[in-house]
Amino acid sequence: MPDTEDLAADLATALRDGQIEAAYQPQISLKTGDVEAVEALCRWHHPSMGEIDPATMVDLAENTGVIHELGRFMLDDCLDLLESWRANGRDWELAVNVSPLQLVDEAFARYVFDEFRRRGLAPASLTLEITEKLPLLDASAVVPRLRVLREIGVGISLDEFGAGYASLERLENLPLTEVKLAGPLVRSTDPDRLGALRESVEVAHERGLRVVAEGIETQQHLETAAELGCDRAQGFLISRPHPRAAVEQGVSVQ
């Protein structure tokens, strides 16, 4: 197995060589069961190692500066898909993760704005997902960028809420439109933990935030997400990630 240094060198050429692609996982409405959105997930198919763990890939990209090129690739793929959906009369929303390093770069928000204007797309059709650790580590640098993006009309989601240190009270300064509950929380069977989670969902709704339950793997997890009051759900029970070609015309859920 190549060491980290070797993988970093490989990542530098992976985009050029077509090893990186976006896969898309549907999110369904817990009220209707219909697909309302998909999340773009970055995948690296290494020629000798096969699938590289996404967390490893992101760490390497951030440490080597490739994250800007990688993030631009993912955003462009998402916008291409939104254009395809518009041409086919489909109005699903699309979510994609962004790194704090992308957000600190003043050019990122400008690029998002320019691309939406050039393509004639509605910014509200895109949600940018940030990780829970973000507001604790980079608030002073990142929050102003998030506010600019929110003013444009782009949605802002806090991913894996509850997995780290943040609480809704500590996130008041973030211009959020959505929180995503971490899978392990939704899969919990602890009544006290689920009770606390239900309260968090209620507070999120009071603040006008959409709540998405991720990591749904069984019917019981899905029922728990509904009982908690979540708006949307995502996970292997519903659908595994699909290549872009499979979701351009729509995709069925399991």
Helix-strand blueprint:
Layout (H helix, E strand, L loop, with lengths): L3 H11 L5 E10 L5 E12 L3 E3 L1 H11 L2 H21 L5 E5 L2 H5 L1 H14 L6 E6 L2 H19 L2 E7 L16 E4 L1 H4 L4 H16 L3 E4 L5 H10 L3 E2 L8 E2 H4 L7
Parallel strand pairs: 2-4, 4-5, 5-6, 6-7, 7-8, 8-9
Antiparallel strand pairs: 1-2, 1-9, 1-10, 2-3
Structure report:
A hairpin with a 5-residue loop joins strand 1 and strand 2. The model has no long low-confidence stretch (mean pLDDT 89). The chain is built from ten helices and ten strands. The longest helix has 21 residues. Helix 1 packs across helix 2. It has an eight-stranded mixed beta barrel with strand order 1-2-4-5-6-7-8-9. The chain is globular and about 50 Å long. The chain has a domain of 172 residues: EAL domain (TIM Barrel). The protein has 254 residues and is α/β, with parallel strands linked by helices.
Our count of helices gives 10
In total, the number of strands is 10
> Could you describe the largest sheet, including whether it forms a barrel?
8 strands, mixed, barrel
CATH topology of the domain at 68-239: TIM Barrel
- Share in β-strands: 15-25%
Outline the low-pLDDT stretches.
Answer: none
Helix-strand category: alpha/beta
State the shape: globular
- Give the rounded overall mean pLDDT: 89
CATH class of the domain at 68-239, named: Alpha Beta
Reading the helices and strands in chain order gives HEEEHHEHHEHEEHHEHEEH
The fourth-level CATH homologous superfamily of the domain at 68-239 is EAL domain
Largest beta sheet: strand ordering: 1-2-4-5-6-7-8-9
The CATH architecture category of the domain at 68-239 equals Alpha-Beta Barrel
Organism: Microbacterium awajiense
InterPro entries: Cyclic-di-GMP_PDE-like (IPR050706), EAL_dom (IPR001633), EAL_sf (IPR035919)
Pfam family, one: EAL
Domain EAL: 4-254
